Amino acid sequence: MKAIRRFTVRPVLPDPLRPLSDLARNLRWSWHAETRDLFRSVDPERWAASGGDPVRLLGSVPPARLAELAGDGPFLRRLGEVAGDLHDYTTGDRWYQNQPEELPAAIAYFSPEFGITAALPQYSGGLGILAGDHLKAASDLGVPLIGVGLLYRHGYFRQTLSRDGWQQEHYPVLDPNELPVVQLEEADGTPAQVSLALPGGKQLHARIWLAQVGRVPLLMLDSDVEENDLGERGVTDRLYGGGSEHRLLQEMLLGIGGVRAVRTYCRLTGHPAPEVFHTNEGHAGFLGLERIAELCAEGLDFDSALESVRAGTVFTTHTPVPAGIDRFDRELVARHFGPDAELPRIDVDRVLRLGMESYPGGEPNLFNMAVMGLRLAQRANGVSLLHGNVSREMFAGLWPGFDADEVPITSVTNGVHAPTWVAPEVFRLGARQIGDRRAEDALTVGGSDRWDAVADIPDQDIFDLRRVLREQLVEEVRERLRASWRQRGAHTAELGWIDDVLDPDVLTIGFARRVPSYKRLTLMLRDRDRLMDLLLHPERPVQIVVAGKAHPADDGGKRLVQELVRFADDPRVRHRIVFLPDYGMAMAQKLYPGCDIWLNNPLRPLEACGTSGMKAALNGCLNLSVLDGWWDEWFQPDFGWAIPTADGAGTDPDHRDDIEAAALYDLLEQRVTPRFYERGQSGLPDRWIEMVRHTLSLLGPKVLAGRMVREYVERLYAPAALSHRSMGPDAARDLAEWKERVRAAWPGVTVDHVETSASDALAELGTTLGLRVRVALGDLGPDDVDVQVVSGRVDEEDRIGDATVVPLKPVGSADQEGCWVYEGPLSLDRTGPFGYTVRILPAHRLMASSAELGLVAGPSEELVAAAGLLMR
């Protein structure tokens, strides 16, 4: 019989065991081995059955066992030590508290998904895992972050396979009472809520759930509450589900409701109010509108409020393609704002203007969430150096007149949270060299360029470690594969062959990620005969473990999954290649350490960063990857291989795949497998072990989330906090009025005349020329602008590359025609074709970038032709 109602009955812990509840509710256990070991000792079988989830474990332990533990002296001593360690961790000073400069009192970090632990399945892929690692690293460093997201009652989806290998989706209902979260409550014990106004006088209500991630609170909004109608209850049903209006409501709740949740949390707990708001991708961009509305309610006009909000906002873009950005029809957005809906005191046209693609090549009727994110943030970044370049090109239309490399989008390369992703065996090997405390600091705070202690680890120890991890993966794969085949309808009697799947002594390749087409799940199948030869080589075989989910609406991705599954089902190779369904954090934590090679073959440059290879590298796994994302930045032959690409303009996609697949097979046949199987005089693969050693010692310190978060603090959060503090109401009004005045006057700003002290177009290296420029500033003055000379080597079309920018200084006062003369040096510091030009930019002390207004004035074409600005 099926129950008509469900309850979650919590155990009553004996008083001596009460600290177990606090330990279970703080998600630090997900990366703190001692806490997990303590819970495992409560009941090892139930711990395994709970999937390593302390909340589920405590809900299943019999009262007799709890009573036994309450009288167990050694267990209570361990409990006291672990609880004391958590208290010290959450209250003591850490890296952030020991920085000399005045840093933000708090930072609010908004993301549509967070991958903290498999016990809280609120993530779909890399964006969520990155957000989870960001929170964990911030906790380790003592950064006062407040995370903000949504609580999806169905999470993303669980993946199984049909008998013929077609992906099937399942959406189990998540009960928050069975998750490691607590409900935020008002002082009187009632649930804390936020509400949004909807068209037609309706309301969208949401409760606030709190997940404690070490020192960092994560606020998660849940619309499945009784006060909502059925449609509104489903707003937070699934991650990335539903149609346009469903997504818009999710993003309004995340951004606008998220700010209101932060205000509520700070009011109830006394937590300092955030000085900086960080938008992780465009989904939460509406948070800026809510903050503008707050300031307008305090008496600021819209433009001044916009300047104030921009000063303290950081925007991170994660997508390298326009198709990856959420875009909504302008009429849909307009319907949800204004007098009859949300933010009634803000003119709808002002809302729309922030997100409209009002630039050459844009779609004028589409509201672009990333465009809004950039317009609402004074600081923006991509997630690798290459992705920063791609983003500057992609969004250059927002800054007309500027070269792409001057677009104000910087880069902070992603990192991964080492304590989450490093296998305990790897940590113990490092701790044996330098001690537990130093090893923990190396993985969390980072700061060093290399881990020299790795050089002292004997080759035999590294070889033994890698085999142990590979063996653990083989066991994990067989267990998961057997479960998968049972779900596909196979009987136990049919599955004896699984006992021989994979071999702990064979070179193991891992490939696991989401399955959009650009990641090319099936590139390895391009030449199946050649792949079979690799898998079945009599002396140097390889084995491959593949996992990945296609988006439920992406039938093309599902066909790629099916193609891979059908190949892996072939009895000739099924002991050498496997597809594991339902890729998630729990699987990943076994997969990364157990592989020898991590394969990544996206279409360059469509991988913004791609952190899975970082997690593998921290466990001594070597990367075999296209030079995309972070690998383009940090690749060295010492610790991996680069797959050559055929990404020239006009390359036929099929031909490109053929070329790059052939390059992949060549690398595996000629360089990778010989290196793994070669034995030196010691009988060990000493050249392979040396590459593992280099991966750990040189790559390890770079890929840390601790390094990433420190960069965010130093390069983005601290400057944003200073801007926020400088942008009081009066300063915001002054800046808004100045921008309005500059925009109005800019048509009158011109470069009238340029002359140099050069007598001809030939000059010697090292010569310094005098430059004299006459400019018209219209209604502006020298304090409103920068006049610059831009010089450098030029190409055949006279475009300046690798430019040097030098400011020119005004001489005297305006002449009778109101023009100003500027002078300065022009250094000829490069040989060959060399050129310069002159430009005028707006300048204000409160702007983070001279490109901020997207205004630039330069010489007219007639002036260029007459003056001969290029020197050859």
Automatic annotation (TrEMBL):
Protein's name according to its UniProt entry: glycogen phosphorylase
Cofactor: pyridoxal 5'-phosphate
Location of the DUF3417 domain: 13-120
EC id: 2.4.1.1
Top-rank EC class of the record's enzyme: transferase
Superkingdom field: Bacteria
Gene3D superfamilies in the cross-refs: Glycogen Phosphorylase B
Function: Phosphorylase is an important allosteric enzyme in carbohydrate metabolism. Enzymes from different sources differ in their regulatory mechanisms and in their natural substrates. However, all known phosphorylases share catalytic and structural properties.
Annotated family: Belongs to the glycogen phosphorylase family.
Transmembrane annotation, as ranges: none
InterPro entries membership: Agluc_phsphrylas, Glyco_trans_35, Glycogen/Maltodextrin_Phosph, Glycogen_phosphorylase_DUF3417, Pyridoxal_P_attach_site
Keywords: Allosteric enzyme, Carbohydrate metabolism, Glycosyltransferase, Pyridoxal phosphate, Transferase
Reactions listed under catalytic activity: [(1->4)-alpha-D-glucosyl](n) + phosphate = [(1->4)-alpha-D-glucosyl](n-1) + alpha-D-glucose 1-phosphate
Record-linked Pfam families: DUF3417, Phosphorylase
